[in-house]
Specification:
mainly alpha, Rossmann fold, globular
Length: about 375
């Protein structure tokens, strides 16, 4: 092992790949991060958190039953990215469900990804409906909020920059209701549940446990945590008050598909987080991408989150605030779940974790911002 490799190992948690330079977590004398210690204390022998492996077929049977006499069995939200592509492929080719695909092309969706969507639904012979969300409004909010973040860096403000994307959760329900569909299936993975678990307290991670990921109580508790962070951000910036309306919608009403409001507003529509009920099969996922002719956008270093160039910018924003990137947190979650070894995570991080100047430029261009503003030490230049 080279000196640089040894230094890289020491610079990260001894159990996962969270960097020891992170400002929001602690490390013990063995170099293990507080998140790994909390997860180990909560369930030292468990497998994938929140996974009732093997029961997905029971849910599929219920969806078929609810779909009898209807035109479609389910609505599936797709972004053109890896996870939703793999999900739709599974539902059509393995489960033979009658799917309706719902799609929103954001201002940050690469042309290659949009082509992936069109190619996917044509290949699988699935009808496509596009969501009624204004790109102009989305871009306007993103421009103003990112500029605000440059003056007042705070996680709640960074998340608000893509708050309009949360409207997708509302639109999928609206489409299901309009089409008379009683089931919605989502393709998020368990490893994204704690996407910023790396910046949460160990107590919060331990309290979450391995069950009840989308119960009403769990969704309500998460909503209150997000609201608390938003209140903290409001106290730091008076300007943020002008975005209170979209903040309430994105952090309370439409934060995820399981909010109390959406459940109350659409009581006859059931949801399923598919990959929370079955094993994630990396090789099969890659096979599905090849079969439908999926292409990686220029500059993207990994298939995960390749569907949105803004993800590169947000990744950089959180790295500047906390020292932790999305990719750090994602791989670390997979390691705690036991589906990725630390050695493999470090190997993948060396390529997939690299920043992409091209993708950052793609995100900054519509925002009319210089990418150099998102380099370490450059926040003051925007003030």
């Amino acid at each position: 092992m080279s000196d640089s490799d040894t230094q890289g190992l020491r610079a990260r948690c001894s159990q996962c790949v969270l960097p020891r330079s992170a400002t929001t977590i602690t490390f013990d004398d063995n170099g293990t991060c507080s998140l790994c210690n909390a997860a180990k204390a909560q369930s030292p022998t468990s497998g994938q958190p929140g996974c009732a492996a093997g029961d997905v077929e029971e849910h599929i049977q219920e969806i078929r039953k609810r779909g009898r006499g209807r035109r479609y069995d389910c609505v599936v939200g797709i972004s053109g990215g890896r996870d939703s592509t793999y999900l739709l492929w599974l539902l059509v080719t393995k489960h033979h469900l009658r799917c309706l695909a719902a799609y929103y092309r954001t201002p940050f969706t690469p042309e290659v990804i949009d082509q992936n969507v069109r190619r996917l639904v044509t290949h699988l012979d699935v009808p496509l409906v596009e969501m009624d969300i204004s790109q102009e409004y989305h871009l306007s909010i993103a421009r103003r909020v990112v500029r605000l973040w440059l003056r007042h860096p705070h996680p709640a403000i960074a998340n608000l920059a893509c708050g309009v994307c949360k409207f997708v959760n509302r639109e999928v329900y609206r489409i299901a209701q309009h089409e008379g569909v009683s089931s919605i299936i989502y393709g998020g993975t368990r490893f994204e549940v704690y996407q910023f678990g790396a910046v949460q307290s160990p107590r919060a991670v331990a309290a979450h446990g391995n069950t009840g990921l989308h119960t009403l109580g769990a969704s309500t508790r998460k909503m209150f945590r997000v609201v608390a962070r938003g209140i903290g951000a409001l106290s730091r910036s008076r300007e943020l008050w002008r975005y209170l309306s979209i903040g309430v919608k994105s952090a309370v009403l439409y934060m995820n598909p399981h909010t109390p409001w959406l459940r109350f507003r659409y009581p006859g529509i059931h949801t399923l987080e598919y990959f929370h009920h079955t094993e994630w099969m990396e090789e099969e996922a890659e096979k599905s991408l090849r079969e439908v002719g999926w292409e990686l956008p220029p500059g993207a270093n990994m298939t995960w989150r390749a569907d949105c160039s803004f993800g590169e910018l947000k990744n950089r924003m959180f790295a500047m605030m906390t020292g932790i990137t999305y990719v750090d947190a994602y791989f670390s979650n997979m390691m705690r779940a036991g589906v990725l070894t630390r050695e493999e995570g470090l190997r993948r991080l060396a390529t997939e974790g690299n920043p992409s100047p091209e993708r950052l430029g793609d995100a900054c261009r519509p925002l009319e911002l210089d990418p150099v503003l998102f380099s370490d030490g450059n926040l003051d230049k925007a003030k």
